[in-house]
Specification:
By secondary structure, the protein is of the alpha/beta class. The chain contains seven helices and 27 strands. The chain has four domains: 16-34 and 191-330, Molybdenum Cofactor Biosythetic Enzyme, Chain A; 44-59 and 155-189, Molybdopterin biosynthesis moea protein, domain 2, CATH 3.90.105; 64-151, Molybdopterin biosynthesis moeA protein, domain 3, CATH 2.170.190; 337-403, Beta-clip. Strand 24 and strand 25 (363-366) form a beta hairpin.
Length: 404
């Protein structure tokens, strides 16, 4: 790659040490636009809505009871108490799917069950716990019936109301809501196709004997699971040793991918060939992010394919995915909470720190072991605490927290 004019020879022709937010924006800008497709609601977990969803029905579809008990007229039950029960005539029952067929008159009631339509002539519910049986055709109320135990038709949403919107990610509660709206299918953005490549001579498959200095390939398993949570289609390219030719051969199998995600080979070492390959034969959008762990992350391109290089250390790789890659892939911002620090969290002068932490009684505690090679720490942690550059957090101060 030629040096631009007026640039000192020692300065690389691409940005270095950029902010976390700049890294997110750069990656998002390199991803292709995703057109819509229609899928069954049951298959849409993790997908992103490409069209608003309007309610095809009202919910509840009728005014109904929130409790098991009786439906009656509130005015007939005023003054009811354990000392002076009110006696009503039982005229029938209403249950979900089989409503009462008549009209309830003064001094009457019907037995009713949760979710059953409220019969005409009634406006209140008395729960079964506040009833005494008498004869089969009468009941005694130990307290007044309450209109507050009635769910009104359309109280949740009404037919024709727009309830869900473009850009929302379909979580399990949202899938349930889409179904309740009456939709069997939803229009979603096409899934991103992410090619995943693990690199490094020291990386071996689990189940094989482990030699001194080798590690099992935990990154690919963790990253593949996280891509699945993002609703992406994963193209598994396997593992490539530390060799430029091996890397090029693996990348050649990424046909049809929208982006290539790699782990390892992007730091400062002699054998960090993914870095060299993109600098010398591809292109680099940036190298290194002002964050810890995960600083050596690299974004570039290879023959038109966007490439995001994650560090090889397991914690660094997964933290960078949480903080930079996930929001870029999903289009959803990082969700943070403001919680109080129960322990101090140190700052780094020129980097944003994402320290592992545990939650106890609504406060965050430093996990203490913050080495990027200790994968157990990320498994045990409940959250990442964001400590801005050069701004240590003291006990009792509020801090931004990313839940894991």
């Amino acid at each position: 790659m030629s040096q631009p004019q007026n640039r000192p020879p020692h300065q690389p022709p691409f940005p270095m040490h950029i902010s976390v937010e700049e890294a997110r924006r750069s990656l998002a800008a390199m991803l292709p636009p995703l057109g819509p497709e229609t899928v069954r609601v049951a298959e849409a977990l993790g997908r992103t809505l490409a069209a608003d969803l309007t309610a095809l029905v009202s919910h509840p579809s009728a005014t109904e009871s929130a409790l098991d008990g009786i439906a009656c007229r509130e005015a007939d039950t005023l003054g009811a108490s354990a000392a002076a029960p009110v006696r009503l005539k039982v005229s029938g029952e209403s249950r979900a799917g089989v409503p009462f067929g008549g009209v309830v008159g003064p001094g009457e009631c019907v037995r009713i069950y949760t979710g059953a339509p409220l019969p005409p002539g009634t406006d209140a519910i008395c729960p079964v716990e506040q009833l005494q049986g008498g004869a089969d055709d009468h009941v005694l109320l130990l307290r007044p019936a309450s209109p507050g135990d009635v769910r009104h038709e359309g109280g949740d949403f009404r037919a024709g109301e727009t309830v869900m919107y473009v850009g929302q990610r379909l979580t399990s509660p949202r899938l349930a809501l889409a179904t309740a709206l009456g939709h069997a299918q939803v229009e979603v953005r096409r899934r991103l196709r992410v090619a995943l490549l693990s690199t490094g001579d020291e990386v071996v498959e689990p189940g094989t004997p482990l030699m001194a200095g080798q590690v099992y390939d935990s990154n690919s398993v963790g990253l593949s699971a996280m891509l699945g949570e993002c609703g992406c289609e994963v193209i598994w390219l396997g593992h490539a040793p530390d060799s430029p030719e091996a890397l090029k051969g693996s990348i050649a199998r990424a046909g049809g991918a929208d982006v290539l995600l790699t782990s390892g080979g992007v730091s400062m070492g002699k054998y960090d060939f993914m870095r060299d390959l993109l600098i010398e034969q591809g292109r680099v959008a940036f190298w290194k992010v002002r964050m810890r762990p995960g600083g050596p992350a690299l974004l570039g391109g290879w023959h038109g394919l966007p490439v995001f290089g994650l560090p090889g250390n397991p914690v660094s790789s997964l933290v960078v995915f949480h903080v930079i890659v996930r929001p870029a892939l999903t289009g959803q911002p990082v969700q943070t909470l403001r919680l109080r620090a129960a322990t101090p969290f140190r700052a780094i002068a020129d980097k944003a720190a994402f320290w592992r932490a545990t939650l106890v009684n609504g406060q965050v505690h430093d996990y203490r072991q913050q080495s990027s090679g200790v994968l157990r720490s990320l498994s045990d942690a409940d959250a990442l605490v964001l400590v801005p550059e050069g701004q240590p957090v003291q006990v009792g101060e509020e801090v931004d927290v990313i839940l894991l």
